[in-house]
Amino acid sequence: MCSKMEFGSVLQFLENKNILVTGATGFLAKIFVEKILREQPNVKKLYLLLRAADAKSASQRLHNEVIGKDLFRLVKEKWGANMNSFISEKIVLVPGDISYGDELGVKDSHLKEEMWRELDVIVNLAATTNFDERYDLALGVNTLGAKHVLCFAKKCIKLKVLVHVSTAYVSGEKAGLILETPYKMGKTLNGVSGLDIDEEKKLIDEKLNELQAQGATDEAIKEAMKDMGIQRAKVYGWPNTYVFTKAMGEMVVGHLKGNLSVVILRPTIVTSTYKEPFPGWVEGVRTIDGLAVGYGKGRLTCFLGDINGIVDVIPADMVVNAIIVSMVAHVNELSDESIIYQDGKPVKVGRVKVLDSMNSFRRYMALRYLLLLKGLELANVAFCHYFDGMYSDLNRKIKFVMRLVELYKPYLFFQGVFDDMNTEKLRMAARENNIETDMFYFDPKSIEWDDYFINIHIPGVVKYVFK
Protein backbone atom coordinates (compact mmCIF):
# COMPACT_ATOMS: atom_id res chain seq x y z
CA MET A 1 0.00 0.00 0.00
CA CYS A 2 1.35 3.45 -0.86
CA SER A 3 2.82 5.37 2.10
CA LYS A 4 0.79 8.52 1.45
CA MET A 5 -2.72 8.54 0.06
CA GLU A 6 -4.11 11.71 -1.37
CA PHE A 7 -7.78 12.04 -2.18
CA GLY A 8 -10.35 14.77 -2.08
CA SER A 9 -13.93 15.28 -0.98
CA VAL A 10 -16.03 12.14 -0.83
CA LEU A 11 -19.20 14.13 -1.54
CA GLN A 12 -17.61 15.66 -4.65
CA PHE A 13 -16.50 12.24 -5.84
CA LEU A 14 -20.01 10.79 -5.44
CA GLU A 15 -21.61 13.63 -7.41
CA ASN A 16 -22.78 12.59 -10.87
CA LYS A 17 -21.39 9.04 -10.44
CA ASN A 18 -22.98 5.76 -11.54
CA ILE A 19 -22.65 2.99 -8.94
CA LEU A 20 -23.68 -0.66 -9.20
CA VAL A 21 -24.58 -2.34 -5.88
CA THR A 22 -24.99 -6.13 -5.90
CA GLY A 23 -26.99 -7.94 -3.24
CA ALA A 24 -29.15 -4.82 -3.02
CA THR A 25 -31.72 -6.24 -0.58
CA GLY A 26 -29.03 -7.22 1.95
CA PHE A 27 -28.43 -5.54 5.32
CA LEU A 28 -25.26 -3.58 4.42
CA ALA A 29 -26.40 -2.77 0.88
CA LYS A 30 -29.55 -1.03 2.15
CA ILE A 31 -27.50 1.09 4.57
CA PHE A 32 -25.08 1.95 1.74
CA VAL A 33 -27.93 3.02 -0.59
CA GLU A 34 -29.62 5.08 2.15
CA LYS A 35 -26.35 6.84 3.02
CA ILE A 36 -25.63 7.83 -0.59
CA LEU A 37 -29.21 9.05 -1.24
CA ARG A 38 -29.27 11.04 2.00
CA GLU A 39 -25.79 12.60 1.83
CA GLN A 40 -25.32 12.97 -1.92
CA PRO A 41 -28.67 13.20 -3.74
CA ASN A 42 -26.71 14.44 -6.79
CA VAL A 43 -25.33 10.96 -7.36
CA LYS A 44 -26.22 10.18 -10.98
CA LYS A 45 -27.60 6.65 -10.71
CA LEU A 46 -27.57 3.76 -8.25
CA TYR A 47 -27.95 0.51 -10.20
CA LEU A 48 -29.32 -2.09 -7.76
CA LEU A 49 -28.84 -5.73 -8.72
CA LEU A 50 -31.38 -7.96 -7.01
CA ARG A 51 -32.77 -11.40 -7.64
CA ALA A 52 -36.14 -11.14 -9.37
CA ALA A 53 -37.95 -12.85 -12.24
CA ASP A 54 -38.81 -9.59 -13.99
CA ALA A 55 -38.97 -5.79 -13.62
CA LYS A 56 -42.32 -5.93 -11.79
CA SER A 57 -41.15 -8.32 -9.08
CA ALA A 58 -37.85 -6.37 -8.84
CA SER A 59 -39.89 -3.21 -8.18
CA GLN A 60 -41.93 -5.01 -5.51
CA ARG A 61 -38.76 -6.19 -3.80
CA LEU A 62 -37.29 -2.67 -3.90
CA HIS A 63 -40.34 -1.16 -2.21
CA ASN A 64 -41.00 -4.00 0.25
CA GLU A 65 -37.45 -4.91 1.24
CA VAL A 66 -35.46 -1.70 0.71
CA ILE A 67 -37.24 1.68 0.43
CA GLY A 68 -40.18 0.54 2.57
CA LYS A 69 -37.95 -0.04 5.59
CA ASP A 70 -37.84 2.34 8.55
CA LEU A 71 -34.17 2.85 7.65
CA PHE A 72 -35.25 5.26 4.88
CA ARG A 73 -37.44 7.46 7.07
CA LEU A 74 -35.04 10.47 7.02
CA VAL A 75 -34.82 10.37 3.23
CA LYS A 76 -38.62 10.14 3.06
CA GLU A 77 -39.00 13.08 5.47
CA LYS A 78 -36.63 15.16 3.33
CA TRP A 79 -38.35 14.42 -0.01
CA GLY A 80 -41.93 14.10 1.19
CA ALA A 81 -44.38 13.92 -1.73
CA ASN A 82 -41.46 13.93 -4.18
CA MET A 83 -39.95 10.72 -2.76
CA ASN A 84 -41.23 8.42 -5.53
CA SER A 85 -40.02 10.67 -8.35
CA PHE A 86 -36.63 11.07 -6.59
CA ILE A 87 -36.28 7.28 -6.27
CA SER A 88 -37.31 6.63 -9.88
CA GLU A 89 -34.80 9.24 -11.06
CA LYS A 90 -31.89 7.92 -9.00
CA ILE A 91 -32.44 4.16 -8.80
CA VAL A 92 -32.18 1.75 -11.72
CA LEU A 93 -33.41 -1.75 -10.90
CA VAL A 94 -31.34 -4.56 -12.36
CA PRO A 95 -33.02 -7.99 -12.10
CA GLY A 96 -30.20 -10.53 -12.06
CA ASP A 97 -28.09 -12.96 -10.06
CA ILE A 98 -24.31 -12.88 -9.69
CA SER A 99 -24.14 -16.68 -9.67
CA TYR A 100 -25.52 -16.76 -13.26
CA GLY A 101 -22.31 -15.98 -15.17
CA ASP A 102 -20.21 -13.01 -16.29
CA GLU A 103 -23.28 -11.01 -17.36
CA LEU A 104 -24.73 -11.42 -13.82
CA GLY A 105 -27.94 -12.94 -15.14
CA VAL A 106 -29.01 -9.55 -16.60
CA LYS A 107 -31.35 -10.35 -19.51
CA ASP A 108 -31.97 -6.76 -20.70
CA SER A 109 -29.21 -6.17 -23.28
CA HIS A 110 -29.77 -2.37 -23.37
CA LEU A 111 -29.39 -2.16 -19.59
CA LYS A 112 -26.26 -4.31 -19.70
CA GLU A 113 -24.62 -2.15 -22.36
CA GLU A 114 -25.64 1.00 -20.50
CA MET A 115 -23.87 -0.28 -17.36
CA TRP A 116 -20.73 -1.29 -19.29
CA ARG A 117 -20.68 2.20 -20.76
CA GLU A 118 -21.63 4.29 -17.70
CA LEU A 119 -20.52 2.61 -14.44
CA ASP A 120 -17.88 4.38 -12.34
CA VAL A 121 -17.96 2.13 -9.25
CA ILE A 122 -19.09 -1.41 -8.41
CA VAL A 123 -19.69 -2.47 -4.78
CA ASN A 124 -20.11 -6.23 -4.46
CA LEU A 125 -22.22 -6.91 -1.37
CA ALA A 126 -24.00 -10.03 -2.64
CA ALA A 127 -23.29 -12.99 -0.39
CA THR A 128 -24.90 -15.89 1.38
CA THR A 129 -23.81 -15.69 5.02
CA ASN A 130 -25.18 -18.93 6.53
CA PHE A 131 -22.31 -20.86 8.10
CA ASP A 132 -23.66 -24.16 6.78
CA GLU A 133 -25.27 -23.02 3.53
CA ARG A 134 -25.66 -25.60 0.77
CA TYR A 135 -22.23 -25.91 -0.87
CA ASP A 136 -23.60 -25.45 -4.40
CA LEU A 137 -25.32 -22.18 -3.41
CA ALA A 138 -22.43 -20.82 -1.34
CA LEU A 139 -19.84 -21.57 -4.04
CA GLY A 140 -22.20 -20.10 -6.67
CA VAL A 141 -22.61 -16.76 -4.87
CA ASN A 142 -19.56 -16.28 -2.62
CA THR A 143 -16.89 -17.66 -4.95
CA LEU A 144 -18.07 -17.88 -8.57
CA GLY A 145 -20.31 -14.84 -8.01
CA ALA A 146 -17.25 -12.79 -6.99
CA LYS A 147 -15.51 -13.98 -10.17
CA HIS A 148 -18.52 -13.03 -12.32
CA VAL A 149 -18.70 -9.53 -10.78
CA LEU A 150 -14.99 -9.03 -11.52
CA CYS A 151 -15.42 -10.18 -15.13
CA PHE A 152 -18.41 -7.85 -15.48
CA ALA A 153 -16.31 -5.00 -14.01
CA LYS A 154 -13.60 -5.55 -16.63
CA LYS A 155 -16.14 -4.80 -19.37
CA CYS A 156 -17.01 -1.40 -17.84
CA ILE A 157 -15.00 1.08 -19.91
CA LYS A 158 -14.83 3.90 -17.36
CA LEU A 159 -14.88 1.91 -14.12
CA LYS A 160 -12.70 3.55 -11.49
CA VAL A 161 -12.82 1.02 -8.65
CA LEU A 162 -14.38 -2.29 -7.57
CA VAL A 163 -15.05 -2.82 -3.85
CA HIS A 164 -15.49 -6.46 -2.85
CA VAL A 165 -16.88 -6.99 0.65
CA SER A 166 -15.56 -10.16 2.28
CA THR A 167 -15.27 -11.14 5.98
CA ALA A 168 -12.41 -10.97 8.48
CA TYR A 169 -13.11 -14.62 9.31
CA VAL A 170 -11.62 -15.88 6.04
CA SER A 171 -8.66 -16.36 8.44
CA GLY A 172 -10.39 -19.45 9.87
CA GLU A 173 -9.43 -20.43 13.42
CA LYS A 174 -5.98 -18.86 13.31
CA ALA A 175 -4.68 -17.52 16.64
CA GLY A 176 -2.43 -14.51 17.13
CA LEU A 177 -2.07 -11.52 14.82
CA ILE A 178 -4.03 -11.79 11.57
CA LEU A 179 -2.60 -9.53 8.89
CA GLU A 180 -4.36 -7.71 6.05
CA THR A 181 -2.75 -9.90 3.41
CA PRO A 182 -4.42 -11.26 0.27
CA TYR A 183 -5.13 -14.94 -0.36
CA LYS A 184 -3.13 -16.35 -3.25
CA MET A 185 -4.97 -18.76 -5.54
CA GLY A 186 -4.98 -22.28 -4.05
CA LYS A 187 -3.43 -21.21 -0.72
CA THR A 188 -4.98 -23.19 2.14
CA LEU A 189 -5.08 -22.62 5.89
CA ASN A 190 -3.67 -26.02 6.80
CA GLY A 191 -1.10 -26.33 4.00
CA VAL A 192 -3.01 -29.13 2.21
CA SER A 193 -2.34 -28.68 -1.50
CA GLY A 194 -4.73 -29.23 -4.39
CA LEU A 195 -7.40 -26.59 -3.76
CA ASP A 196 -8.85 -25.85 -7.19
CA ILE A 197 -12.10 -23.89 -7.54
CA ASP A 198 -12.99 -25.47 -10.91
CA GLU A 199 -12.46 -28.88 -9.33
CA GLU A 200 -14.75 -27.95 -6.40
CA LYS A 201 -17.48 -27.00 -8.89
CA LYS A 202 -16.97 -30.32 -10.67
CA LEU A 203 -17.26 -32.27 -7.40
CA ILE A 204 -20.53 -30.48 -6.62
CA ASP A 205 -21.97 -31.27 -10.07
CA GLU A 206 -20.94 -34.93 -9.76
CA LYS A 207 -22.52 -35.19 -6.30
CA LEU A 208 -25.77 -33.56 -7.47
CA ASN A 209 -25.97 -35.87 -10.52
CA GLU A 210 -25.36 -38.89 -8.29
CA LEU A 211 -28.08 -37.83 -5.81
CA GLN A 212 -30.58 -37.16 -8.60
CA ALA A 213 -29.81 -40.53 -10.21
CA GLN A 214 -30.59 -42.17 -6.85
CA GLY A 215 -33.93 -40.36 -6.75
CA ALA A 216 -33.02 -38.42 -3.59
CA THR A 217 -35.67 -36.05 -2.22
CA ASP A 218 -35.13 -32.27 -2.28
CA GLU A 219 -34.61 -32.34 1.50
CA ALA A 220 -32.01 -35.13 1.23
CA ILE A 221 -30.15 -33.20 -1.52
CA LYS A 222 -30.19 -30.05 0.61
CA GLU A 223 -28.74 -31.87 3.64
CA ALA A 224 -26.11 -33.63 1.49
CA MET A 225 -25.04 -30.27 0.00
CA LYS A 226 -24.81 -28.72 3.49
CA ASP A 227 -22.69 -31.62 4.75
CA MET A 228 -20.48 -31.49 1.66
CA GLY A 229 -19.74 -27.80 2.22
CA ILE A 230 -18.57 -28.32 5.82
CA GLN A 231 -16.56 -31.40 4.81
CA ARG A 232 -14.78 -29.64 1.89
CA ALA A 233 -14.04 -26.60 4.07
CA LYS A 234 -12.43 -28.79 6.74
CA VAL A 235 -10.27 -30.59 4.18
CA TYR A 236 -8.41 -27.31 3.60
CA GLY A 237 -8.51 -25.94 7.16
CA TRP A 238 -11.58 -23.66 7.18
CA PRO A 239 -14.24 -24.26 9.87
CA ASN A 240 -17.37 -23.76 7.74
CA THR A 241 -18.79 -23.34 4.24
CA TYR A 242 -19.31 -19.56 4.53
CA VAL A 243 -15.73 -18.54 5.33
CA PHE A 244 -14.30 -21.17 2.95
CA THR A 245 -16.29 -19.92 -0.04
CA LYS A 246 -15.59 -16.25 0.89
CA ALA A 247 -11.85 -17.01 1.03
CA MET A 248 -12.03 -18.61 -2.43
CA GLY A 249 -13.97 -15.53 -3.60
CA GLU A 250 -11.04 -13.34 -2.51
CA MET A 251 -8.66 -15.67 -4.36
CA VAL A 252 -10.43 -15.33 -7.72
CA VAL A 253 -10.80 -11.56 -7.37
CA GLY A 254 -7.09 -11.16 -6.62
CA HIS A 255 -6.04 -13.61 -9.32
CA LEU A 256 -8.14 -12.14 -12.15
CA LYS A 257 -8.12 -8.41 -11.31
CA GLY A 258 -5.47 -7.48 -13.90
CA ASN A 259 -4.97 -3.71 -13.85
CA LEU A 260 -8.38 -2.98 -12.29
CA SER A 261 -8.33 -1.02 -9.01
CA VAL A 262 -9.77 -3.44 -6.42
CA VAL A 263 -10.44 -2.93 -2.72
CA ILE A 264 -11.32 -5.90 -0.49
CA LEU A 265 -13.04 -5.01 2.77
CA ARG A 266 -13.08 -7.56 5.60
CA PRO A 267 -15.51 -6.51 8.33
CA THR A 268 -15.74 -8.58 11.51
CA ILE A 269 -19.19 -9.24 13.07
CA VAL A 270 -21.47 -6.47 11.77
CA THR A 271 -23.90 -5.04 14.34
CA SER A 272 -26.63 -2.37 14.36
CA THR A 273 -25.99 1.22 13.28
CA TYR A 274 -24.04 3.39 15.72
CA LYS A 275 -25.32 6.81 14.61
CA GLU A 276 -26.78 6.95 11.10
CA PRO A 277 -29.35 7.34 9.80
CA PHE A 278 -30.26 6.85 13.48
CA PRO A 279 -28.80 4.62 16.22
CA GLY A 280 -29.74 0.96 16.55
CA TRP A 281 -31.18 0.05 13.13
CA VAL A 282 -30.67 -3.65 12.52
CA GLU A 283 -32.26 -6.39 10.45
CA GLY A 284 -32.42 -10.07 11.27
CA VAL A 285 -30.63 -11.77 14.16
CA ARG A 286 -26.93 -10.98 13.64
CA THR A 287 -24.33 -13.55 14.72
CA ILE A 288 -23.99 -12.44 18.35
CA ASP A 289 -27.63 -11.52 18.89
CA GLY A 290 -28.87 -15.11 19.12
CA LEU A 291 -27.05 -15.34 22.46
CA ALA A 292 -28.51 -12.08 23.84
CA VAL A 293 -32.01 -12.95 22.64
CA GLY A 294 -31.86 -16.51 24.01
CA TYR A 295 -30.61 -15.24 27.37
CA GLY A 296 -33.21 -12.43 27.49
CA LYS A 297 -36.07 -14.84 26.80
CA GLY A 298 -34.84 -17.26 29.48
CA ARG A 299 -34.17 -20.01 26.90
CA LEU A 300 -30.40 -19.93 27.36
CA THR A 301 -29.49 -21.68 30.62
CA CYS A 302 -25.82 -21.99 29.76
CA PHE A 303 -23.32 -20.75 27.22
CA LEU A 304 -20.32 -22.41 25.63
CA GLY A 305 -17.27 -20.20 25.16
CA ASP A 306 -14.16 -18.61 26.58
CA ILE A 307 -15.22 -16.09 29.24
CA ASN A 308 -11.98 -14.16 28.65
CA GLY A 309 -12.51 -14.32 24.92
CA ILE A 310 -12.74 -11.34 22.63
CA VAL A 311 -15.62 -10.75 20.23
CA ASP A 312 -14.82 -8.50 17.28
CA VAL A 313 -17.73 -6.33 16.19
CA ILE A 314 -18.26 -3.24 14.03
CA PRO A 315 -21.46 -1.18 13.64
CA ALA A 316 -22.96 -1.34 10.15
CA ASP A 317 -22.80 2.41 9.45
CA MET A 318 -19.04 2.35 10.10
CA VAL A 319 -18.62 -0.51 7.61
CA VAL A 320 -20.56 1.46 4.98
CA ASN A 321 -18.48 4.59 5.64
CA ALA A 322 -15.27 2.54 5.31
CA ILE A 323 -16.55 1.16 1.96
CA ILE A 324 -17.25 4.69 0.67
CA VAL A 325 -13.95 6.24 1.84
CA SER A 326 -11.86 3.28 0.63
CA MET A 327 -13.42 3.41 -2.85
CA VAL A 328 -12.64 7.13 -3.13
CA ALA A 329 -9.08 6.59 -1.84
CA HIS A 330 -8.31 3.95 -4.48
CA VAL A 331 -9.89 5.41 -7.61
CA ASN A 332 -7.93 4.35 -10.73
CA GLU A 333 -5.08 3.03 -8.58
CA LEU A 334 -2.75 0.66 -10.41
CA SER A 335 -1.50 -2.07 -8.08
CA ASP A 336 -0.46 -5.69 -8.50
CA GLU A 337 -2.45 -6.69 -5.45
CA SER A 338 -5.88 -5.85 -4.09
CA ILE A 339 -5.88 -3.45 -1.14
CA ILE A 340 -7.33 -5.15 1.94
CA TYR A 341 -8.98 -3.46 4.92
CA GLN A 342 -9.95 -5.33 8.09
CA ASP A 343 -12.58 -3.51 10.06
CA GLY A 344 -13.55 -4.36 13.62
CA LYS A 345 -13.10 -3.67 17.31
CA PRO A 346 -12.47 -6.24 20.07
CA VAL A 347 -15.08 -6.23 22.84
CA LYS A 348 -14.95 -8.28 26.05
CA VAL A 349 -17.71 -10.87 26.46
CA GLY A 350 -20.04 -10.42 29.46
CA ARG A 351 -20.63 -12.96 32.22
CA VAL A 352 -23.18 -15.76 31.88
CA LYS A 353 -22.93 -19.32 33.23
CA VAL A 354 -20.20 -20.54 30.87
CA LEU A 355 -19.01 -23.99 29.89
CA ASP A 356 -15.40 -23.49 28.87
CA SER A 357 -14.76 -26.56 26.70
CA MET A 358 -16.54 -28.89 24.32
CA ASN A 359 -16.06 -31.75 26.83
CA SER A 360 -17.86 -29.85 29.60
CA PHE A 361 -20.62 -28.95 27.13
CA ARG A 362 -21.04 -32.60 26.08
CA ARG A 363 -21.19 -33.65 29.76
CA TYR A 364 -23.84 -30.99 30.42
CA MET A 365 -25.90 -32.15 27.43
CA ALA A 366 -25.54 -35.83 28.45
CA LEU A 367 -26.73 -35.21 32.01
CA ARG A 368 -29.45 -32.73 31.13
CA TYR A 369 -30.91 -34.15 27.92
CA LEU A 370 -29.36 -37.37 26.64
CA LEU A 371 -30.33 -39.39 29.77
CA LEU A 372 -33.88 -38.05 29.37
CA LEU A 373 -33.81 -39.04 25.70
CA LYS A 374 -32.61 -42.56 26.57
CA GLY A 375 -35.37 -42.92 29.19
CA LEU A 376 -37.95 -41.72 26.69
CA GLU A 377 -36.67 -44.24 24.13
CA LEU A 378 -37.14 -47.13 26.61
CA ALA A 379 -40.58 -45.86 27.67
CA ASN A 380 -41.52 -45.56 24.01
CA VAL A 381 -40.72 -49.23 23.37
CA ALA A 382 -42.53 -50.31 26.57
CA PHE A 383 -45.68 -48.33 25.68
CA CYS A 384 -45.93 -49.42 22.03
CA HIS A 385 -44.44 -46.21 20.54
CA TYR A 386 -46.87 -43.98 22.47
CA PHE A 387 -44.05 -41.39 22.90
CA ASP A 388 -42.92 -41.41 19.26
CA GLY A 389 -43.71 -37.72 18.67
CA MET A 390 -42.11 -36.54 21.92
CA TYR A 391 -39.01 -38.69 21.38
CA SER A 392 -38.39 -37.55 17.78
CA ASP A 393 -39.02 -33.90 18.73
CA LEU A 394 -36.45 -33.98 21.57
CA ASN A 395 -33.98 -35.94 19.42
CA ARG A 396 -34.29 -33.36 16.62
CA LYS A 397 -33.78 -30.46 19.05
CA ILE A 398 -30.66 -32.03 20.58
CA LYS A 399 -29.16 -32.70 17.12
CA PHE A 400 -29.91 -29.10 16.12
CA VAL A 401 -28.18 -27.68 19.24
CA MET A 402 -25.13 -29.93 18.77
CA ARG A 403 -24.81 -28.90 15.11
CA LEU A 404 -25.18 -25.23 16.03
CA VAL A 405 -22.45 -25.53 18.66
CA GLU A 406 -20.12 -27.27 16.19
CA LEU A 407 -20.69 -24.43 13.70
CA TYR A 408 -20.11 -21.64 16.23
CA LYS A 409 -17.30 -23.34 18.19
CA PRO A 410 -14.48 -21.65 16.17
CA TYR A 411 -15.83 -18.21 17.14
CA LEU A 412 -16.70 -19.05 20.75
CA PHE A 413 -13.03 -19.87 21.37
CA PHE A 414 -11.52 -17.46 18.83
CA GLN A 415 -7.94 -16.47 19.70
CA GLY A 416 -7.09 -14.25 16.73
CA VAL A 417 -6.37 -10.53 16.79
CA PHE A 418 -7.05 -8.65 13.56
CA ASP A 419 -4.37 -6.24 12.39
CA ASP A 420 -6.03 -3.14 10.92
CA MET A 421 -2.96 -1.15 9.88
CA ASN A 422 -4.32 -0.49 6.39
CA THR A 423 -7.62 0.67 7.87
CA GLU A 424 -5.76 2.91 10.33
CA LYS A 425 -3.71 4.41 7.46
CA LEU A 426 -6.97 5.09 5.63
CA ARG A 427 -8.39 6.84 8.72
CA MET A 428 -5.23 8.94 9.06
CA ALA A 429 -5.26 9.83 5.35
CA ALA A 430 -8.92 10.86 5.60
CA ARG A 431 -8.04 13.21 8.49
CA GLU A 432 -4.93 14.60 6.72
CA ASN A 433 -6.86 15.24 3.50
CA ASN A 434 -9.59 17.01 5.47
CA ILE A 435 -12.33 14.91 3.94
CA GLU A 436 -15.74 14.84 5.65
CA THR A 437 -14.65 12.67 8.60
CA ASP A 438 -17.70 13.72 10.66
CA MET A 439 -19.95 12.43 7.87
CA PHE A 440 -17.93 9.35 6.86
CA TYR A 441 -16.67 8.26 10.31
CA PHE A 442 -15.35 4.73 10.75
CA ASP A 443 -13.13 4.83 13.84
CA PRO A 444 -14.46 2.32 16.40
CA LYS A 445 -12.20 3.88 19.08
CA SER A 446 -14.83 6.64 19.32
CA ILE A 447 -17.43 4.15 20.64
CA GLU A 448 -18.18 3.68 24.33
CA TRP A 449 -19.03 0.00 24.00
CA ASP A 450 -21.11 -0.59 27.16
CA ASP A 451 -23.29 2.36 26.25
CA TYR A 452 -23.56 1.21 22.62
CA PHE A 453 -24.69 -2.33 23.53
CA ILE A 454 -27.01 -1.39 26.40
CA ASN A 455 -28.59 1.77 24.98
CA ILE A 456 -28.34 1.31 21.21
CA HIS A 457 -27.75 -2.22 19.96
CA ILE A 458 -29.94 -4.35 22.24
CA PRO A 459 -32.92 -1.89 22.13
CA GLY A 460 -32.48 -1.87 18.32
CA VAL A 461 -32.65 -5.67 18.19
CA VAL A 462 -35.79 -5.62 20.37
CA LYS A 463 -37.42 -2.92 18.22
CA TYR A 464 -36.53 -4.07 14.69
CA VAL A 465 -36.05 -7.83 15.00
CA PHE A 466 -38.76 -8.65 17.55
CA LYS A 467 -41.22 -5.91 16.66
How many β-strands, per DSSP?
14
Fraction in helix: 40-55%
- Fraction of residues in β-strands: 5-15%
Largest sheet: 7 strands, parallel
Nearest-angstrom radius of gyration?
A: 23 Å
What letter string, H or E per element, gives the SSE order?
HEHEHHHEHEHEEHHHEEHEEHEEEHHEHH
Separation, N- and C-terminal Cα atoms: 45 Å
pLDDT < 50 runs, ≥5 residues: none
**Total helical elements:** 16
Q: What is the approximate shape?
A: globular
Largest sheet, spatial ordering of strands = 3-2-1-4-5-7-11
Short description:
The chain is of the alpha/beta class and about 475 residues long. It is built from 16 helices and 14 strands.
Q: In words, what does this structure look like?
A:
The structure is a single chain. With 467 residues, this protein is an alpha/beta fold. Helix content is 49%, strand content 13%. It is built from 16 helices and 14 strands. It has helices at residues 10-14, 27-39, 55-67, 73-79, 83-90, 109-118, 135-154, 197-213, 218-235, 241-256, 289-296, 316-329, 358-382, 388-412, 421-432, 449-464; strands at 18-22, 45-50, 91-95, 121-124, 161-165, 176-178, 262-267, 269-271, 303-304, 310-315, 339-343, 345-348, 354-355, 416-418. A 7-stranded parallel sheet has the order 3-2-1-4-5-7-11, sandwiched between helices. Strands 8-10-12 form a 3-stranded mixed sheet. The chain has a two-stranded parallel sheet with strand order 6-14. Helix 2 links the parallel strand 1 (18-22) and strand 2 (45-50). Helix 2 (27-39) packs across helix 12 (316-329). The longest helix has 25 residues, at 358-382. The chain is globular and about 70 Å long. The model has no long low-confidence stretch (mean pLDDT 86).
